Amino acid sequence: MVQQLKNTKNKDLNSLNHDILKMAFPTAHKTVFLLDHTLSSQSGVKFDLESLNKPKNSNHSQSQPPVAHIPLLPVYKSVWTCGVEALTEYCRIVWDIFPSSRLIRFIAVDKTVHRLNGWSADDQNLSSLMNMFITLGPAKTGYRADLEKGMKAAVEALTEPTAIQHEKRSSLTDSATKVLNKGRVIIFTRLETDLEIQNIKDKFHEILILNNKVAASTDTLMPINHCDLVLVNFYKENQSHLFENKFWPDFSTFLSCELFNLRCGVTLAPKLCNLVLRHYELASTTVTGIPMKEEQNASSSANYDVELFHPAAAHTAILKGIPSETAHLRTIREGTDYETITLKWCTPRSNASTELQHCSSAYRITSVDVNSRPSSCLTNFLLNGRWVMLEMPRKSGNKVISHMLACHGGDIYIHTMYTSRSVLEDPPSISEGVGGRVTDYRIPDFIDLVKMNLLAPHPPVTLEEGEDGSIPLDSSFSLLKRHTKVWPITLASTCLFSLGTVVLPLRYLMVKETLTEDEIVECKNVIFALMGMETRAETLPVSNTASRGGKGGGKREEQYKALWVELEQYLKSHLHSPGHEKVLECLVQCQSKGDSAKEIKDEKVDLDQALMEIDSISEIGPTKEKVPPPVKTVIKTPDSNSSIPSSKKRKGSIPALAPFGKKSATSLFSIWESKINSDQAQKCPEFQGRLLAENNVTKLYANFQEKEKDDTSRKK
Amino acid sequence: MPTVLLLDVSLSMCQPVFEDIGIIAKSKPLEENGDVILRKNLSVMGCNQILDHFSQYCKLEFTALIIFSSLYEVVVRFTRDFDSVKGALSTLEDYDKTNIQVGLLGVTQHILEEWGNGTPCQIVLISDGNLGTQQGSLSKSLASLQHGHGPSELPLPFPFPAKLNIVCIASPDDEALKVSQPIYQKMLEIGGEGSLYIPERNFTVKSVSSMFEKLIAENFMPYNGTIHCGNLSASIMLSPPPQQYHRHHDFETVRESVKEEIHICGFLNVADVSSPPAFSRHLVLSMVNKGLLISESLKFLLVLYYFFELYLYLGVFIFVVTCITKSFSDDLATFAKDSCSDDEGVIDEARIPSLCVLLHGGLKKGNMVALCQVGNNWFGIFYSWADSKKKSNLMLSIFEPGYDVIPWLGKLSNLGPVEALSVNPYGQSNTTSPFPLKVPDKKSYAQNCVVWVRHGGLQSDVQKILRHARKLPDKHASFYKELNRVRKAALMYGFPELLNGLANLLERECYNLPSSTHPEAAIQLQHASEALRLWDKKDPRHNIAHYKSSYE
C-alpha cells in the first residue's frame, strides 16, 4: 500500500477549533453601543451662522447698501451631538454594506438605562435610528451617567440571541450546540484618568462573568464566548488627548479591550472610518478620474475622485501576491490613517449590463462622503443602471480592468473581475466537439422551450409551511421534465416536429397541465390536418436524413408511418389530464381500423373491404357536421379549411385507412414499433374503448351523432 | 487546473536504485538493458506517466516543469504541449544539493506571475526524500510558521489556492526518509491540502510506477458527469475539473462537492442574472456516451433476435434479411458504425447529436442562461461564451454554495415556473422582468440622508434652506422639505441650539426681504422661525407644515 498521510485530517484539533472560532462566528455580528447620555458639555465645534450670509451679502452690496444688524451668535455642538453624528455614520456604513448580517443595538444611559432597540432586523436602518434618537432627546445635564448600569444592560443585550443565532442553535444539526456567541460593546464616554479606564474594564469583566452564569442557567439566553470592549473617549476640539490609543488583546480569555480617542471636529470622521474599517474588515477604494461637468460652467468638465468602502475581500484578487507589484496602488489620503486603493474610472460601454462579465465576487459598497457632489454623481449614475469598469494600472505600465461597479435592485456592488491569465484560454470551439457538425438541431424550438421554462421569483415559501415540503424550484424541475418528455433534439430524428407550424398547437398545448375544450379541439384539428395531408398525398417537409430507406412513393408512405407512430408516442407520453386523453382517444380512433387489422396479424390488405368502408363513409356526406369518425373525411388543412371533393378522396384516402401501412412491404421497423407500442400501451391505462369491447369490436362514438346533433341544434 | 512538476535535480537523485535497500553492500543495483537505473530515471518515468495521462484525458490542462537544486530554473513554462515537457525531461542535467525552499519559492513566483492568486494550482514535488544539509533550517522555519511568529523563508501556505503533493523516490525503509518524513508532513499541514507519496514496501520500478498511478488517480482525474435538461441528457466533461468547496461562512463551515449529475432548473435572461459572481468557471465539453452506445447496440441485438424468432416461425427468414438490409439500412449503418468503429477509431463524434450543442445554440440565440443545480444547495449557470478568437463554447459558472448567494435573484429555491403565477412578470412580449429584486430599505446613497460629521455637511444643508427661503413663496415646498430634514436631524443629534440659530437666521432673512417681495414670503419665514423655536413643545416627529395664509 502506498503510504499517504492526509494532513488535513491529522490537523491539530485545537487549531481547527480555533479556525472555527475565528472564521465562522464573527464578532461583528452583534455590536452594542453604550452611550453616555450626559455628554452635554460643549465640544468646541462651532457652526458660524453669520458666515452663511457673507458670500450672498457681498453680491448684494453692489445693488443694495448693507443692512446693519445684530450679528448672529454661532452655535456649538455638544460632545453628545458629535457622538451621535459619529454613531450614525458608523451605522450608515455598516448597514449599507451588510444589510442583515451585522446587527447593532443602542443603549443610552443617564440616571436610568434607555434600551433603544432590539436585535430585530426592522430596527436596523437609518430612519428607525433617527426616530429612536429623536425620542431620546438631547444630552442631560447636571449629573454623571451610571455607566455600570449601562454596562449591565449592554452585556444582557449580548446574551440575547439574534434571529439567526436562534435558528442555528435550535436547528437539528450536529453543529447546533456549538454556536458561539461573540460580540462587541462600544462605549461612548468621556474619560479623565487611567484609574477610570481600569475600573471600567474590571467592572465590565465582572459583569460579563456574572451574566454568563445567569445566561448558562436559562434556555433563552446565550452565554458570551468572547466580547470585544471598545472604549471611545471623546475629547474637545481644542484639547489635546490625555491617553494614547491602547489595546489589551487578551484582557482575559473571553474579553479583549481597546481604548480609542476621538477628537470632536473635522478629524472625527476619518478617525471613525478607521474604527469601522477594522471592526468590519472593510477596505477603501478611490475611483479616480471621474469626468464631471462643472457646476458653474456646464461646458467644461473636470476630473474628480470618489472614495468607496467595501469588504476588504474585494481587493484580495489584486493585492495578494507579489507586494511590490501593487505598491503603487496603495496611497493614504490626506487626513486619514488608512490605505486606499486607487483605481481609474473607465467610460462605460452602454451594453455592458446586457452581457455576462466574468466576476469572482461581488460586494456591496457605500460612498464615504455620501452627500458630496462627486459621490452623489457617481452613485446616481450607477443607480440609473449604468455600469462602470475600474481599471488597475499595472507596474509595467499596461492597464487591466480589475473591478466593476454596478447597481442591482437598488444596491451598488463592486464586482471583482479576473485579471490574470485564464486556464480557459484558447478552448476548442464547440463545433469541433461531439455533435459539433450536426446542423439540424431544433434550435428555434428549443428557444421556445426555454421561454416556456423561464424562472420567476415566487412568493417565499418557508420550508416548514410549504405544502408537502415542496419549493417553487421543484415545480420548475417537474415543468421542464414535462416539457421534454418527448423532445427529439434534431430534425433528422423526428418527422412530427419537422412539420413546423402544422403541429405547433401540439407542441404548445400538449405539455400543459390541463387542456380547455378549445385547446382539445385545436389539438384534434392537428390530427385531422395531418390525416388530410396524408390523404392528399402531400410530401412531408422532412429533411432527407429523416427518411429511412425506401424510394419514390414508398418513401412518403414510410414518412407517414413514422409520423403516426411518433405522434401516438408523443400523445401517450402526455396524458396529464382527461383532456389530454381525449386527444389521444381521437388519434386512436382515427387509427382503430389499422390497429384491429394488426391484431389478427393479417399481412394482406383487404382492399375490397376498405373500399367498401370508404364508400359507406362518403355516403354520409362531406360536410363537417355529419362526418362520423373513425375516418374524418373532412380535414382542416393548415392553409385552407375547405373540404376535399369526394371524387378525389377515393384515390387518396386508401392510405388514410391504414395509416400503419398494412401493405405487403410491411417494414421491420413498423412491426417493431407496433410491438413497442403495444408494450407501452400495457403500461398505460387501458383505453376505454377496448374495455367495452365485445368480441374485440367496439362501437365507436356510440353517442357521437346524437352529440353532433345537439351541438348543431345549439349552434343554430 | 495548472500543474507544476517540481523536480529535484540534485546530485543525490543520481543514486542507483537497489533491489533491497536494507543491505546495500550486498544488493545489486537494478538494471535495464545493461544500464543502471538511477532515481532520477524513475522520477522522469513518473513525470512521463503524469504527462501521458494528461495527453489522453486532460488535453486542456497546463503543465510547467521547474527543476531545483540549490537554485531553481523554470525549464518549461505553463503549456498544453506535453511533448515539449517530455522532451525537456529527457535532457535534464545534474546539479548540486537539494534546497526545497528555493524550489517552492520558484514555484510560487512562477504561478503568481502566470495565474495570479485566484487560480487553484497543483504542485507535485518529486524528490529522493533526502533533505541533506537543509534539514535543520527547514524544520526551524516550519516551526516558526506553525507558531505564527517571525518571517519564514518558506512560502507556505501558498498565496493562491494550491494542492502540494510530495512524492519520494526512495525506499520506504530509507534512513534519510525517516528523518525527512515528519518535516514533509508538517509542510503539508501548513500548506493545506495534499498528501505524501512513498513507494509501497519494496523499492522497484513497479512500485514507483504504481505510486504515480495512485497520485494520478487521487489528484488528476477528469470530471465526467451528465447534464440533464428535464428528460434530455448528455455526457459531459468539465474542464478544469470542479474543486470541492470548503470555506467558513457566518455560523457554519460549508463543504460541498459538485455532483456527477447536473440538473437544469430553468432559464433566465442574461441581463437578469447581471454578471453574478462565480466560485469557478468551467468549459463544458460534450462526450460520447459509451454506455449509451453499448446499450443501444444491445437493444438492437435484442430486436434482431426478436425478429429472428418471429420470422423463423413464419418461415420467411430470407425475406427478413432483405427487409433488414432494406428498411433498416440506415439504422444498421449507424449502429454498426457506433458499435464497431470504436475498435477502428474512425467514429465521427462530431456527427452524433449532442444536447450540449443544442443547449449552446439555444442559449446563444435566445440570449439566455440556464440555471442548474450542481450539488446539494449548490447552483450555477450554463451559458454560451466566445473567446477573443470568436470560438464559441458552452460554459458553466458555479456560484458559491447556498440558496441566497445572488441577492438580486432572491432565494434560488423560490424561483418557480412563470405559468404557476397569476400574472406573467415577464409580460406578454418578454419586455418586462421581475429581476433584479428590489431591496426593501433604500441605501444611504439613495435616500438623501443627513451626514454632519463630515466637514461642510451642516453648512451646505443650511445653505440649501437659505437658497430656497430667498425664492419664497415659489419654492415653499422645497423650503419646508429641507427645513424639516434639517430640523429632524438636529433633534436626532440632540442639537436644539441649531434650531434656535436657524430661527434667528430666518427671522433676519425676513427682515432683509426687499420691499418688492410677495408678502407671502415674509409670512412663511415668520411661521417657520416660530415653529422652529417650539421644538420641545410639540411632538418632535411632527413636521413643520406650510402656513396657509389669506394672501395666496
Automatic annotation (TrEMBL), chain A:
The keyword Hydrolase does not apply. Residues 636-656 are annotated as: Disordered. InterPro entries: Cell_cycle_regulator_Mat89Bb. It comes from the Eukaryota. One of its GO terms (cellular component) is integrator complex. GO terms for biological process: cell differentiation; cell division; centrosome localization; meiotic cell cycle; regulation of mitotic cell cycle; spermatogenesis. It is found in: Cytoplasm, Perinuclear region; Nucleus. It holds the Pfam family Mat89Bb. Keywords: Cell cycle, Cell division, Coiled coil, Cytoplasm, Differentiation, Meiosis, Mitosis, Nucleus, Spermatogenesis. Belongs to the Integrator subunit 13 family. Belongs to the multiprotein complex Integrator, at least composed of IntS1, IntS2, IntS3, IntS4, omd/IntS5, IntS6, defl/IntS7, IntS8, IntS9, IntS10, IntS11, IntS12, asun/IntS13, IntS14 and IntS15. The core complex associates with protein phosphatase 2A subunits mts/PP2A and Pp2A-29B, to form the Integrator-PP2A (INTAC) complex. This is Protein asunder. The gene is ASUN.
TrEMBL record, chain B:
Its main location: nucleus. InterPro entries: INTS14 (IPR039841), IntS14_b-barrel (IPR045814), IntS14_C (IPR046471), VWF_A (IPR002035), vWFA_dom_sf (IPR036465). The keyword Membrane applies. GO terms for biological process: snRNA 3'-end processing. Residues 220-288, 336-402 form the Integrator complex subunit 14 beta-barrel domain. Keywords: Membrane, Nucleus, Transmembrane, Transmembrane helix. GO terms for cellular component: integrator complex. Residues 450-551 form the Integrator complex subunit 14 C-terminal domain. It is found in: Nucleus. The chain crosses the membrane at residues 300-321. SUPFAM superfamilies: vWA-like. It comes from the Eukaryota. The keyword Cytoplasm does not apply. Residues 3-129 form the VWFA domain. Belongs to the Integrator subunit 14 family. PANTHER family: INTEGRATOR COMPLEX SUBUNIT 14, PTHR13532. This is Integrator complex subunit 14. It comes from Armadillidium nasatum.
